[in-house]
Amino acid sequence: MNKQIGSRVITAVVGIPLLVLIIGWGRPAHFLLLVFLLTIVALWEYFSMAFRGRWKKQALGVLFGVLAALSVILPGSSQPGLGLAGVVVLAFLSYLFSGAGLEERYQQLGWTLVGTLYVGFLVPHLFLLYRSHDGREWVFFILLVIMAGDTAGYFVGSSLGKKKLYPEISPGKTVEGAFASLAASALAGVVGGKYLLPAFPWMEILLLSLFLSLLGQGGDLFESWIKRVFAVKDSSRLLPGHGGLLDRMDSLIFPVVFATYYLRLIHP
Fold it and tell me: Which strand (E) or helix (H) includes residue 259?
């Protein structure tokens, strides 16, 4: 346990300042490149789990995911759904005429579409959020809320947790850890929101923080479900102490998507 915590701390000490530097002081093009690279790595991790040892299927899945990502982040992409529709139709046709059995092809198509949507389409919403009004502040806010919740949930769950939250999917998650995550996210959100988003009422920030925390925990469980299906512990070994990049991003994806459209619909 101590070795794992040490690896987590070292990875965080190296990664977090670099992330803060790019978000806070980098140009939009730098953040766009970062998000695109993160998406490609996460796609590779997902399709490596889904199609172990089948590099052609992996490459095809990554290609569909990259095309979906480009439909979101390319300049002038005002209707990403249009590009996504084209990618989905292309995936349908590709598996319709592939060489495997009918049922196997259908299953593989499903795995491919999940990766294309979950990673290729949703992860680039991080750049859409960044381009929103006060986008840098919102990215920092979500990172603060989710990272505070993740940290509290991990330490409380591992030290005090007794009641399992969802053992079929994630045996390590506990109810105590989930409540600690909610409390830490709420506290971090209210305190951080005062400085990052001073124009928003504290009650709205509190409710948003709680909902973002719930979405983050749901995203964590969703990725754990994927790993259970494919019988792997981590999405990769890219980040010492953390597993793969997708293991670190899973709790951010759903909150980022929600915040992106919340701002567009409620605070245009």
Answer: helix 245-266
